[in-house]
Amino acid sequence: MSDNIRLKAESIHTYAYLYHAAKWVSEVPDKRENPLRYSSMLSILASAFSLEAYMNHLGPRYFPKWDKDGLRSPNEKIDALMEKLKVDKVKHRSQFDSYMLALRIRESLVHGRTHEVHKKATYVFNPGSKIGSTQPEWKRKSTKRDALMILNGVADLMHTLSKAAGDEPWPYHTFGKGIEDK
């Protein structure tokens, strides 16, 4: 006699994959000679996307038109869910601020355009001198320290939202589950 289980469906938790991608890439060492810190930048982006994906997983349960509105920004999503689930923004300020930083970085990278930064003074370049470039926020904040702060803040927010929704406490540990056909 077989103990096989027949599944009629399987749910795949995209947010968990994105979280683990953010965690994995945050552990990739940045090369000292590379001041752009690509792994930190990618970790920040994956962290922002993981929480947005989790909100898209949770949102339709509380807002019937969640998918149909199509106008909800990540800021509106987090505000709506925190209010609906009675999650105190003040109590979770540092995690919320970490996510807001991730969103600013995400927006500036995803919607960024080539632009000129006009200097207040004229710079004279001497041959062989090293002059640093203008540092937009996404470039300044793409550090290992900030990437880990954002990753931990996003994980804490997912945990808090999940707990408030009465779900498993660490939602990013489950990549998916089967739905048994009985």
Architecture blueprint of SSEs:
Elements: E1 7-12, H1 14-26, H2 38-62, H3 66-69, H4 74-84, H5 93-110, H6 137-140, H7 144-164, E2 176-180
Antiparallel strand pairs: 1-2
Helix pairs in contact: 1-2, 1-7, 2-4, 2-5, 2-7, 5-7
What tags apply to this protein structure?
globular, two-stranded antiparallel sheet, 53% helix, 182 residues, mainly alpha
What would you note in describing this structure?
- The protein is mainly α and 182 residues long.
- It has one domain (9-112, 137-177).
- 53% of the residues lie in helices and 6% in strands.
- It has a two-stranded antiparallel sheet.
- The longest helix is centred in the first third of the chain and has 25 residues, at 38-62.
Number of helices: 7
Structural category is: mainly alpha
What percent strand?
A: 5-15%
Largest sheet: 2 strands, antiparallel
Cα separation of the termini? 17 Å
H-E order: EHHHHHHHE
Give the quaternary arrangement of the chains.
single chain
Low-confidence regions: none
Rg over CA atoms, rounded to whole Å, is: 20 Å
Spatial order of the strands in the main sheet? Answer: 1-2
Which outline best applies?
Answer: globular
- Helix fraction, binned, reads 40-55%
